[in-house]
Every structure is written in C-alpha cells, then in structure tokens.
Amino acid sequence: MKDDLLAGRYRPLRLIADTAHPGRVWLARDEVLGRHVAVKKVVVPERLSAAERSRLHDRTLGEVRGLAGIDNPGVVSMWDVLSADDHLWLVMEHVPARSLSDVIAANGPLTAAEVVRVGLHLLGALDVVHAAGVVHRDVRPRNVLLADDGRVVLGGFGLPIFDSGAPAAVAGRNLSTTQYIAPERAHDATSTPATDLWGLGATLYVAAEGRLPWARPTILATLAALATEPPDPMYAHILEPTVTGLLRRNPRQRLTTEEARSHLETLTVSTVATAPSAALSRTHGRWPVTATPTKRGTVYAPGSAPVTSGNDAGNTKVLTVAMPPARGRTGWAFAAAMLGLLAVGAVVVAAAGTLVAGLGDQTGETARTPAAAAAGPAETAEPAEPAQPAHPCLDDTAATEGEPVLPATSPPPQALPDGWLWHQDPNGFSIAVPADWTRSTNGKTVCFRDPDELRLIAVDPTAKAAATPQTRWQAEERELLRAGALPGYKKISIGPVIRPGGAAEWEYTWNHGDGQPLHALRLLGNQSPTRAYSLSWITPDSQWALNEPNQRLLSASFRLE
C-alpha cells in the first residue's frame, strides 16, 4: 500500500495484520476526523468470473451495511467502505489490543474464570451480529481481541465474506485452522449463526487447554478424528459441557447462544472460581464473574470474592458438572468434505507436516498429539530388576525419607479446596499440595507424595531449556527403555503444548515394581532461553480418571519464583 491518502482521506501508517486470506490490515489516520482507524483491503479470488465478482461485491456491501448499524462494545465498529485500485477497502474502529492467540502464546491457557468471561463477551457479540443478519464465518482466537481497555472484541470481519465454495473454500487454510470450520460449512458451504457457534466452541477449547480439540500425528488421522470422534477430553473439566455442546456436528443439536450463555452464567456463581484448568504460572486468583450493564452493552468482569465448590470423596476433590445430551453422529458427510482437502495440493500437506513436527506459531492454532490419541504400544522385555528407577521420586530413598509439607508464610495467591495448602519451596517455586502429603528430594528433583498410596507430583525447577521440548522427552524415553526401567511401557503421547516459552508433555503407562500399572503425565516447559522446569504426575493407572482433578489443580498452581 503506497503512502498516499486512500480516497483522499485515510493515510496509512503501518501494517498491523498480514492475513494470508484474503486481505491485509493497516493502521491509518483519518485526516478528516483526526483519529486512528484500521483499513482492510479485501481481495476477491482471481478464479472468479466477472459475474461472480460482481455478485460477491454486492453481497459484501450488504453485510457491511449490517455491520455499520451495530454499536456494541464487543464488536469492531464498521465506519466506511470504499473502492480503490479495483479492490474494496473496509474502514473500521482501531482497537488497541492483543489477539487471544497472541495472549495464549505468550501466557499459556486462560483460567476457567477468564474463559467464562471471554465466552460471555463473545456470545453477546455474536447475538448482535446475527441480529443484524451477518454471519462472521471465521470465529477463532486470532480474531478475538483482548483490548487494552478491558473489552473482549470480535474482529476479523470482511475476511470470510468471499468464501464461496465448500472444500475449495478452506483448502488454503492450514490443518489447524480447519478445526474452527463447522462441518456443514466444510461440506456444502452452509453458513448460519450455528456455524459461528462451532468456531466459538473451538476457540474456547483452545483458550482453556492451549491445544486444539482434535490433533493427531498424521493428517489423515486428524481429519478422521474431526469427522467421527468427540473433542479430546479437557483438563478444564468444568467447561467441558459448554464447549462440547458448541462442538456438536449436527447444527440442529448444537447449543444456541441462549443455551451457551445459560451454561456459562451458571458457572459464574457456582464452581468456576476453584475449578482446575490447564493454566500454569498464574499469579492471581480465580474469581466469580459478574455482569455490569454499560451504555453499549453488558461487560463481564472478575468479581471480588472467592467461591468454593466440590464434593469430598475421601481425600479426592471431585467437581460435579451436568453433562449435555449425547451428540449426534453426522460426521461421515463431513469426513468426505474434509478428506477432499487432501486432493487440493501441497498447502494442507505442508501444514500437516508442521503439525507432526510439533513446530508452528504456538498461537493456539497449532496443536499437539493429545492424551486421547494413544499411539501404538511399544513394549519392551520386562527385566527382573530394572537398572534404574523409572523416575527419581520412585526410588527407595524418596519413598521413605519424606517430611511434612510446610505451608507458605506469604499470603496465598488464591483460595484452595479444604485440605490443601500453599507450599513455598526453598528451591524457588510455589505449589498447592494436599496438606497431609510429604516432601523429599532426590538430587534436583523435589517429590511430593501421598503417604497412604502411590500418588506423587515431582518438580525439577532447574531443568535445561530446549528449543523443541518434545525432543527432550523423546530422548528420555529412549534412555529409560534402553535401561529397562519401563517394563510393559505403552506410550500415549509425546507432543508440544502451548505454554510461555514453549513446552511439551509426555504421557505413558508402565508396570512398576510388583507389576502394578502406573500412569504418568510429564510436562517440560521453558521459563527462559536458558532455564526450564519439569512437572511429573504419577498415579496408579486404575485411579487416573479419579485423580485428574487433583492433577489439574497441582499443575495449575505451580509457578517459579
């Protein structure tokens, strides 16, 4: 874009968004009104005929007129539309903000309360957009703006207006972005308000988990999972009924905006404050979300008092959430549409290769192989006596020399369930643990154990940073197998997760000691270019599901000092 006045009025200052399809966004100055604006160049695909281009031009103007009538704090305001250089230009409100994808990449997944706040704002924005007769078609983290003034704003309008085909319309997108596209749109280009609710469900999933709802080691496996399987289980279990309700393949069975809002508003006054999530290194508490009426709409913001919930089952805190009805199975038509993308060419294949390699932009739009996608078992011969323990916290010294866990002396950063305490470790980290657990060390590893059964979490706050953390786990996997320390080993997954600085998880089972099957989930995260930390959660395989709430709370509470 040349440094000329656009339409004799708008002076471009700098490029602020370079989107591959189908336009770019500049920060510009409106020289008439003396204010900053965002101007977006909308590019019509060259493959279209003159008649198709004219028809889409008229359709775009119709949708822009609908957007121009919206005055809502959760929707980017549309101020002008003009033609120049044989292209349409949209002039919009400039919102100083970071995108949700950038926030996830920099800070990791959001807490449950934060996801609820974002979800309520987006539902309000979609309500007014749909009432104006506009379907967004591209709801995803990159188009959700977390504004400097505290607003959650839905942007990205004008980009999907020219999507006119079914599989061809999404062929230029990478494999991870495809997961935000509703099945009916991929199948036959159908776009309705329910289409946007699918994108909202995928967006909230990524915000809470730091990974995509479906991710597999190959492109074929990912597309097949998209077509036939439910979303991978969420660590933020309390949000799962809402998110999976939005991700039902049959649009007639998908949650409506009213139903989704009811789900989330129920959470704001019940269990969201202390619910575990995938968020790590949080320095603030989880508080209920309150609604505040404003001149332009309702703004949801964190409240000021903690709430508690949960039912005691022994020493295990169990969160109870009503599950939605079983989803419809309308996936095979979607499968045919999605698998048709394979014939489009190298773009999707290259994206899949990036996914498999665990590389990418780490913005909430790339993903890992999840725990739900178990790889084939790689069993080793079971030795009579392993040459080394499978984990430092499982050797005899760590198991017998535990001391009581001391509570932190500084004010706790957030409320905890009954029977838990905050521990400030002399090795430079803080963590929430059950009050009756013990602490021991083995080298640089700090071990927290249940004195009554084999449940433990291990922390190594001095791990070395790795450019690709998953390769570190792959190397340790090879070493432990070579040493015979993992008899009966079955790998569930090794892959990247979205955390500040980059991270990866390794999940697996093996037979310990007398043959008891154990289950481990291990996280390696980069704190800086030279420093990393590892968290390991180990429990009997038979008790894995029962103990997941504890694991999530332990992991979510951890932070380096």
TrEMBL record:
Gene Ontology MF, one: protein tyrosine kinase activity
Tell me if Mitochondrion is a UniProt keyword of this record. Answer: no
Q: Residue limits of the Protein kinase domain?
A: 11-266
> Which residue windows are transmembrane per the record?
332-359
Where is the region Disordered?
288-312, 367-421
Q: Which InterPro entries match?
A: Kinase-like_dom_sf, Prot_kinase_dom, Tyr_kinase_AS, Tyr_kinase_cat_dom
What's its EC? 2.7.11.1
What the entry lists under Gene3D superfamilies is as follows: Transferase(Phosphotransferase) domain 1
Domain of life of the source: Bacteria
Q: Any keyword Cytoplasm?
A: no
Query: For bias kind Low complexity, which ranges apply?
Result: 367-390
SUPFAM superfamilies named among the record's database cross-references: Protein kinase-like (PK-like)
Per the UniProt record, one Pfam family is Pkinase
Question: What's in the keyword line of the UniProt record?
Answer: ATP-binding, Kinase, Membrane, Nucleotide-binding, Serine/threonine-protein kinase, Transferase, Transmembrane, Transmembrane helix
Name under which the protein is recorded: non-specific serine/threonine protein kinase
**Organism name:** Plantactinospora soyae
